[in-house]
Amino acid sequence: HNELNQALQSNEVWYSFELFPPKTEKGREALRRKLNNLAELEPLIVDITWGAGGSSNTTSLRICKRAQQLHGLNTMLHLTCMSMTREELKQVLQSAKEKGIQNILALRGDVPQGGKKVDNGLNYAVDLVKFIKNIHKDYFGICVAGYPEGHGEAESFEKDLFYLKQKVDAGADMIITQMFFDPNIFLNYKKKCREIGIKCPIIPGIMPIMTYSGFMRMTKFTKVTVPKEITEGLEKVKDDKVKVVDFGVSTCVKMCQQLILDGVEGIHIYCLNQYKPVERIIKGLSLRSSRYRRSYPWRRSTIQKRRG
Ligand code: FAD
């Protein structure tokens, strides 16, 4: 643990929390309470996902605004371009700017079921990065997504890396990855990125296992590799909700410890709008508050905390 302590102290490992906009008023109310608790853990940034279908998008903007104004947090808005017109994208960026949001996770997204691609729209995340840069220059900090096991539709792993580099060359400041459950997969990916000249921070996206069904659904959907120890460990406790969370927390802490030892700058947690397991992970890792850390490459909020 000495080595880990050293790594923690010298690297100032920060953490960010990803949340999604709830679909119901009850869910939104619950998130408001959770946000209160999550803010006390003082993450460097919270980011809110974007519904490629468009339904929850005003909620995403509102949650960002609330996180900034009530909790003084820095925020990042996810934005997908595939099923939005250029005009709509322009409006969202303007609205984000007016709300003081200074970071965007620029994504392609997927065409929602029953939806269609817009005419004369943007086809890939790289086009959105260029679009944002073109209109807003360096106002927004820009993140993009990376896939340690390759994106599902990619022609090949190498081609996917090539397109990732294009996103960075177009102006992305940082990469946040898809979830993975074997740290070696991430470390190998990072090495390959460096080999082709990607220099920006590459931040591991970590999804703690919180429920058995949720984990099965997510891993099936994303097709990520699950190591045998995790499958076997989880099968043993799957009928006990409390034990599943315990297992998820300890697995996550172990994985993050390896990543920290290897020198990651930050850890991005897919919180799934939960608080308790996230708190246990941050405390289990002995991570110190991220609030006053150096913020690069995130941009600080322009809106200051109003109360609290
Ligand atoms: P791109 O980088 O555009 O890549 C998409 C595919 O096209 C890849 O296979 C790539 O290899 C290929 N490609 C890229 N550029 C080119 C090019 N110029 N020519 C030909 N092929 C190319 N989805 C949501 O709907 N909302 C969210 O909030 C959201 N948040 C996410 C957060 C993270 C951290 C991650 C990892 C994913 C998230 N997603 C979200 C999912 C994401 O939208 C999907 O994975 C989507 O399929 C790909 O988006 P992308 O930005 O990675 O696409």
TrEMBL record:
UniProt superkingdom: Eukaryota
Family assignment from sequence similarity: Belongs to the methylenetetrahydrofolate reductase family.
Official protein name in the record: methylenetetrahydrofolate reductase (NADH)
Origin organism lineage: Eukaryota, Metamonada, Anaeramoebidae, Anaeramoeba
From-to range in the entire protein, with total length: 10 to 317 of 645
